[in-house]
Amino acid sequence: MNRLSSEKRRQILHLMVEGNTVNGIERLTGASKHTILRLLELAGQACMAHHDRAVRQVKSVRIECDEIWSFNYCKRANLAKAKAAPAQAGDVWTWTAIDADSKLLVSYLLGNRDADAAFDFMSDVADRLANRVQLTTDGHGAYLQAVVGAFGIDVDYAQLVKHYGPTADLPGPDRKYSPGRYVGSHKRRLLGQPHKPLVSTSYVEKHNQTMRLHMKRYARLTAAHSKKIENLVHSMALYATWYNFARVNSAVRMSPAMAAGLADRLWDVGDIVNLIESAEAERLAA
User: Which of 4, 63, 206, 262 is the most buried (most CB within 10 A)?
Assistant: First the structure.
């Protein structure tokens, strides 16, 4: 079986993390769609394993959490009309936890926006932290029980609850595609003694925009959504390692992993290729 060279792999992965579509990468590189998706699978598996090993004992002070919407195959509203929709078709929510100081993506989870997913997500966040933190989420009701189950009382937890007005007075397409108008917010202390001026979700919400820019599967109003849930999961895993280790964050002027003390140098996409090839060598040796 023919195998892509390391440089070709690097080129394709670089195009992926810069927000190109699979079809676009096929046109730019000459690699087949099947080959590109197989490389995404290998990269996703290697990056998930690396994230699980490397992002541990994070010495954080403030953690911000949020959920970002996407969909697999089709939107939930269209499931009844979709032909041959796979079992996991419909809305997909990606839960993310950002360290407010280093901008490290501490944890992520793809699933539903329900209590089970909230608990799994918060349990993973708690497992990756080295100390007590101040935690801020939005007002989603599933968070409180999940935070208590994962952290107990060893956390300073508050919610930032935002309030939005209607969009009925907006003209034309703006009415359909614009979010509700922000009209205010309030901060709600739930556990411990969170410092009120630091109760914020601004950094994690800014990170939502970064995800949509660098992963076409998360971009709005395009035909680049995932047709298989595995592709979305692998795309997120690749992005997480690239974002944490190989991308300079303008706020900290280094990679988030360097700012968090998890790396001593800035990676590039070639280091992700090395992860893939190391995993392949281990499988051959087994």
Answer: 63
Tokens 């108008």 correspond to 181
Q: What angle do CA 199, 203, 209 make, to 5 degrees?
A: 140
Q: Count the Cβ atoms, other than its own, within 10 Å of residue 164.
A: 12
When divided into structural domains, the chain yields a total of 1
**3-state class (DSSP) for residue 104:** coil
Q: What pLDDT, on a 0 to 100 scale, did the predictor assign at position 188?
A: 95
Instruction: Report whether 143 contacts 170 (CB < 8 A).
Output: no
Instruction: Give the Cα separation of 233 and 241 in Å (integer).
Output: 13
Closest of 120, 58, 92 to residue 259, by C-alpha: 58
pTM: 0.92
Query: Is a pLDDT exceeding 90 seen at residue 191?
Result: yes
User: Which residues constitute the domain of residue 140?
Assistant: 6-285
* CATH code (residue 28): 3.30.420.10
User: What is the token pair recorded at 32?
Assistant: 């087949």
- Alpha-carbon distances, residue 110 vs 48, 68, 118, 123, 196 (angstroms): 13, 9, 10, 14, 30
